[in-house]
Amino acid sequence: MLTRFLHRAFGMDPEARPLPGPQPPDRGPFRRDFWKSPLRGPWLASILSSALLPLIVICALTGFLSHVAYETEYSGNSVTGGDALLGPVYSLLDFPVGFAWLYAINQGLHVTSGLATIPILFAKLWVVIPKLWERPALRSLAHGVERISLALLVGASLFVFATGVLNIQIYYPFGFGFIPAHYYAAFIFIAALTFHVATKLPDAARAFRDRGVVAPLRDDVEHTEPEPADSSESAPTAPRPATISRRGFVGTVAAASIGLGLIGAGQSVGGVFRPLGLLAPRGQTIGTGPNDFQVNKTAMGAGITSADTGAGWRLELQGARTMELSRADLMKMPLSTQTLPIACVEGWSTTQTWTGVPLRDLGRLAGVDDPDELFVKSIQDAVLGQVTLNAAQATDPRSLLALQVNGADLSPDHGFPARIIVPALPGVHNTKWVKRLAFWAA
Amino acid sequence: MRAFSKNYGSSPLHLLVAGAAFLIAAYAGFRALQKGPVLPQGEWFLGAILLHDMVLIPVYSALLLALLYVIGGRAAREGTPLSRIRLLVLNHVRVPAALSLLALLVFFPLVLGLADGGLMGVSGLSTDPYLPRFLFLTLALFAISAALFPLRLLRARRRAASAPPDGG
Questions:
Q1: Which 8-state DSSP code applies to residue A177?
Q2: Nearest Cβ partner of A170 from B20, B123, B134?
Q3: Residue-wise DSSP of A361-386
Q4: How many helices, marked H, and strands, marked E, lie in chain B?
Q5: For FRET with A36, which of A79, A84, A303, B49 sits at 20 to 30 Å CA-CA?
Q6: Chain A window 298-337: which residues touch B at a Cβ cutoff of 8 Å?
Q7: Which residue of chain B comes nearest to A128, CA vs CA?
Q8: How far apart are CA A63 and CA A16, in angstroms?
């Protein structure tokens, strides 16, 4: 039904008027017999696409959900703000606080699915490369439109994956900010992909109908025949004998995809699984002490000195009344202990046991029993050196101004003298080296 | 309708959906360039369009072809099927090599220590462990491949022995 509709609406008219103008020479890669692999063809392209599409959907959805979690409607919470297209959607949605590991899972899925996509994307581009060189270069206006959209699709997808992969390794060879570039390239990627799926879904359906969904995986290398040359421009007209079966090719791609996925999952799940993240930026196990777990930024990296956090440190508490509290004052308040994750947008997480003063108790102390917003400011002077938490986050009984972790005082790197820890909050919003808490009544 | 299809090459819906996609792409491109510098973002996007198809594919295709000619010998040069043992050798070399090169392509900033400034300066982590880890992974991939080789050779021989003489 759907594929028949798509075929009628998005299929190419074989009688379309060809575009005038020069054609590429009938030489080299422009000749179809230049491309020798017997594996290329619509079935192989389709089976790879069937794995790509769900992975990309997961990667894109979790990516956009992360922006929901950043509560971008509060200025200072993110650096992407001002997106007229999805910004209004984000302000309508609140990322739930209930399940503390929700953001960890969201970002683990985002980075893991992204990493797992890379080998399949490369394989797909290899399969369809003859189409880049097809003759005639432009069969019709519609064909030209499709080719432009394909350039956007290839460019945006590789741009998104390249910047994402470099960002998780904290390596910035590009001369632009990662977040807006990655974010807006995803728009181009998803827009071009939607059009691509609409135009190509009937081809995939036909390839599966003609050859079966998994049947070609049963052939060993000696029985690996090329797909018919007239089935697609990617199928070879003069193939070389097969040197690997389709099963072998797809299996290798799957192994690469699962391998990269495990590296991502290892640093996301953490704990005993962290060593699985062999090459992952957070695949290192640091030690066994109470403060021996990963940080995004060290105190030194954030420019925090012991003069800022020493005996002279006071928490500025603002609400219906204003007061200053020393760390000793805070330690004398009723403390709560919670096991909660720190989950970085970069896809790594670590779950620890935190002890501190519940944020809602501090709200009450400031004379705001029912806060609508909580503004948190760090000593750190940085782009995300402050955050605004919503009512659900500020009043959840598990939300703490943490003073200790795993029974020991916070180390300087983990935010001594005090840090925020809130369920299902993006890691960077769990502000370290807290200087000021301002509760705003409803 | 027919005239549109003849002139355009597909239905109006094709043009409409493509137009919507281009509009979103134009908005996103405009916003990205508003938020960040034009030149490096444009260069990287253009690079993303061209680099893989025009550089990466020719380079690794040439590598694969060279490997095929070295291992496949005369059969490879003449375009006839390779013997079973040559096929096995070829795949037991190029599959672990491809997996290793992919790992390097994805994690080169850590493996080559290029990310040391960022990771060390910001997060207090050294990139020192990554080169040994990468070499270990590469070694493990080739070791697994080598361990599987005799098993698969045996299986291929057994299958060849039980196949009818004309090859089926």
A1: -
A2: B123
A3: HHHHHTT-SSEEEEEEEESS-STTSE
A4: 7, 0
A5: B49
A6: 298, 300-301
A7: B53
A8: 40
Q: What is the DSSP letter of A174?
A: S
Of chain B residues 75-104, which have a CB less than 8 A from chain A? 79-82, 87, 90-91, 95, 98-99, 102-103
B14/A145 CB distance under 8 A: yes
Domain ranges for chain A, please list them.
2-273, 306-441
In this predicted model, what pLDDT tens digit does every residue of A7-61 receive, in sequence order?
989 999 988 988 888 889 999 999 999 999 999 999 999 999 999 999 999 999 9
pTM comes to 0.96
CA angle, residues A325, A330, A332, in degrees to nearest 5: 125
Domain at A306-441: CATH code: 3.90.420.10
Tokens for A38, please give them: 């017997």
Per-residue pLDDT of chain B (168 residues; tens, 9 = 90+): 789 999 999 999 999 999 999 999 999 999 999 999 999 999 999 999 999 999 999 999 999 999 999 999 999 999 999 999 999 999 999 999 999 999 999 999 999 999 888 887 788 899 999 999 999 999 999 999 999 999 999 988 888 788 665 543
